[in-house]
Amino acid sequence: VQLQASGGGLVQAGGSLRLTCAASGRTFSNYATAWFRQAPGKDREFVAAIRWSGDSTYYADSVKGRFIISGDNAKNTVYLQMNSLKREDTAVYYCAGGLYGSTYYIGTYEYWGQGTLVTVSS
Questions:
Q1: Angstrom distance (rounded) from CA 30 to CA 55
Q2: Tens of pLDDT along 76-114?
Q3: How far apart are the first and last CA of the chain?
């Protein structure tokens, strides 16, 4: 499975961005697809995830109410709509795919994209 993340960029605080994760090589049915992020000097952290079976979604408390994860099964693509962005959302965002384990746990995810940089300015 290859994952391609895109959509990052520079945005002012309060603005919006939409990230895209496109998968190829295998369908994501029954997988969890997640977004993680890593700010400079910090560990990679969970942001949001979606499970294709049942369309369940999961969010970190820090983004709940501001970010929306969604998927297009036909296109094998997952989106992360980020609204009301804050400076602390600045990070490299990675999409990941995994099958077994806790949705929030980084070790669940065996497939990773290359990351896309999101910079939020004040």
A1: 10
A2: 899 999 999 999 999 999 999 998 888 899 999 999 999
A3: 37
